[in-house]
Structures are given as C-alpha cells and as structure tokens.
Design a protein that fits this description.
Two copies of one chain form a homodimer. Chain A is α/β, with parallel strands linked by helices and about 240 residues long. Helices cover about 40% and strands about 10% of the residues of chain A. Chain A folds into two domains: about 140 residues, HAD superfamily/HAD-like (Rossmann fold), CATH 3.40.50; about 80 residues, DNA polymerase, domain 1. In chain A, strands 4-1-5-6-7 form a five-stranded parallel sheet, sandwiched between helices. The two termini of chain A are about 15 Å apart.
C-alpha cells in the first residue's frame, strides 16, 4: 500500500478458514488415527488427511459444472470419505463411525496465532468468515475454537463456491461495504486472485505448515497482494491493529 | 416443559433483536433529541421513536404483498423517516442528517441484562439473531453492544420477513438442527406463535419497558409458550445455563 493509494479505507476483513484460520491437516490426522487405533489399523494419517482434502476441489468442481446438485461441504466430505476409506484400511468403519469422523471437520483446531490475531483485528475491522464450509460447520468451528467472529458468512448463503465471483461480491453486499473496502485474508493465492478480480483488497497469510513441513509453498509475485504476512499477529501489526 | 416432553433437546436459541435484545425506543429518542436540539427544535422524542417504529410493520407488509420490491430495513426505515420528519418539526434535516439519523438503528443499546445473559446462554446453546433487521445492521448492533453471538442470521438471507415460515425454517436449516431443537426467544407473542407453528420451541421474554412505562403488555395464554422469563438472566436460570 502506497501513500498514493486512493481507494477507500478497508472496513471489513473476510477470512478463508480451512488452512488459513484452522489446521485441518493435524486435526483430521489426529481423529483418523484415533478411530483407526480403535480398529487396530495402522497407517499414515497425515496422508489420509491429504487424500481427503485432495478430493475437495474436484468435488466442488462437479457441483460448479452441474454434475452434482448443490451440496453442502458436509455432504461432499462424506462422499470423499466413503471413496478413500478402503485405501487406508478403514472399510470396516460403520455408519456411526463414518458420520462421526466426517464431523471432525467441525472440530478443527485454530493455528496458535488465530484467536489472539482475530481479537486484535476485530478492534479495528468487522471480521467474518468467507469459506466454502457450510454455515453450521463454520458456527461449530467458531464455538470449538473460540474464534471471535462478528458474523459467519458461508458460500452456502450464495449457492456458489469460491472462487465464483458471487461469493466475494455477496459478502460485500451483506456487509454493506464496497468490494474495495473488503479485504480477503487467505493462505491461498488462487482465492486471493479471484477476490482481487472482483475489486477486493487482499492479504496473503503464509501458512508454511498447512500441507506439512517441507511441502512446497504456492508461487506468487511480489506486489501481487496488498499485504503478505507470516501470521495474523503480523497482519494485525501491519494494519496498525 | 414437563418430564413427559419427548421432543429432542434444544440445541440453538434464535433471538428476535429489536425490543428483545436492544432498547430501540430509548436509543432512537436520544439520537432524535440530539439532532433536534442542534436545530433548536423541541418535541416528544419518545413519541417520535414510537411513530418511526409504528411504520415498520405496515412497510414490511407492503414488501410481503409485492407493493414494494424486497427492501432492506435500512431502506424501509428511511422511507418511514422521510414520512414523519415534518410532523415532528424536523423537515429541515438535510440528506446527511437524515442518513445519519437513519443509522441510529445500527447503534441501539442492549438492555442491561442482554450481554451477561447471552454469554451465559452461549455456554450451553448456539446463539444467533433472527431479526428482520438487515445483516449489516445486525453486525453493527453486535459490535456496538458487544453482543456475543455465535452467528448473525437475518430475514435478508431468506428474502422473507418474519413471521413468514421461511425465516424460522431457514434458520433451522442453516444451523443444521430440527425446528424442534431450535427455540425462538422474543418479546413479541405474535413472532413466537409463528415460530411455534413451524415446530420451534418458544421463550417469551417480557420486556415491560419496550414501549415505555405503563404501556399495556401483549396478551398471551398460560402454557402457550415453553418458557416465560423476566429477562435473559431469568431465562438462563430456567434453562440451567
């Protein structure tokens, strides 16, 4: 941001959630390991979490193309789970165990800086989720992790998944702010680029451990985003919050 | 509630907001008095607040009948404001003053028990708004009054105003709970009756001062609602929260 930036002040921050606010990989691996142990099954549960997550974008694409009707992320997660259990030796999980494991996505742990960072940012800006997770999942995550959102906004409210424009523009409309006064905060350059295309501000938070230590980080260009931060405390510092 | 009640446990509480959580009458009267004083105009500003509020249900009915397109409460409030300013000697208010006064509905003060009562109830239940106020208005009220909602739900999300069934059923759907596991908390029997008709539980909170001291309270029948409470602390006590 330069002194010559003539855009209106940022009023609201919309946060991607999976990977940006919460550590889905560690949380899912822990819950999978626990249910596997109860069946005497050993395995690489981080790889299981990765496989589950890897099914997510293709599943949303099937909804976007109309191959599947609008489905909640809960329902998509369950489709993917059922497609990978055999591969990880968990084919014996019964309906109750599968339903409970699927709900692990409602119990993901925040990154260590998330709660304090959000509390600081909330003093200066309206803070909301903007996630493809369904509304009730996001509410459960907030209660589980004590995330101090001003409100919860889900792709479910728009019947469109990110990166469809309806999600970014719909969030600005619900908050009654211009898209330029809304900043998306995300650990994923592709999400940020789609928001920028709709006129939103962008803050890239680098979550080095989202896909595990040593996993290559996504490419981005210097100056491509308004802010680049190591975590939410760094972002709060940069924003004077 | 009797021991023989076979319905599922209540999981979520949805709160009406104007009059139930916040004192619109006192807050609006204060802001009207301030702008009137700056013009040297004297008047009965509680009567002004009552007149403004009295235009609200008929304006929503015009939307419901299709005489007006879907409009936010902000827009409806402004229509009503413009229709009553002359009567109270405020016809000289310019555009900026009217816009600012209209935003007074975003700055309403909570009742004295609201914040503590909500915090106690939140420990046991998911707590949300369910108000005809537009989404951004409800977010602003929460920030202004430090109301600790888990999420904000507005009639705006459904394109229907209460008491239309879509609002109660839509809230249950977003929270992923059965209507019987959702309890509406409101100071208005008509709202509660409409929620009950859709299978929701009901808690009537008697706000004796909503329309001023001595104003007659609405009629209701003993046993008509699941709970009747004097305020949110009393409701929390009755619910074991």
């Amino acid at each position: 941001m330069t002194q010559s930036d003539a855009r209106p002040a940022v009023q609201a921050l919309a946060f991607d959630v999976f990977g940006t606010v919460v550590d889905w990989r560690g949380s899912i691996a822990d819950e999978a390991a626990a249910v596997a142990a109860s069946h005497g099954v050993e395995g690489d549960w981080e790889a299981f979490a990765d496989a589950w997550r890897a099914g997510y974008a293709p599943a949303m694409d099937r909804v976007r193309r109309g191959d599947l009707p609008w489905m909640s992320i809960d329902a998509l997660h369950r489709l993917i789970l059922d497609s990978i259990v055999e591969r990880f030796g968990l084919g014996a999980l019964d309906e109750d165990e599968r339903a409970r494991l699927n709900r692990a996505w409602h119990r993901l742990a925040p990154w260590a800086d998330s709660v304090e960072g959000l509390a600081r940012l909330k003093r200066h800006f309206t803070i909301t989720t903007l996630s493809n997770g369904n509304f009730s999942l996001l509410v459960d995550l907030a209660r589980h992790g004590a995330l101090p959102w001003d409100c919860v906004i889900s792709a479910e409210l728009f019947g469109h998944y990110k990166p469809d424009p309806e999600t970014y523009l719909g969030t600005a409309r619900l908050l009654d702010v211009a898209p330029t006064a809304l900043m998306l905060v995300a650990a994923h350059p592709s999400d940020l680029r789609a928001a920028k295309q709709q006129g939103c501000r962008t803050a890239y938070v680098i979550r080095k451990l989202e896909f595990g230590a040593g996993h290559p980080l996504p490419d981005y260009t210097a100056g491509e985003f308004d802010y680049v931060a190591d975590d939410f405390l760094d972002l709060a510092h940069q924003l004077g919050a």
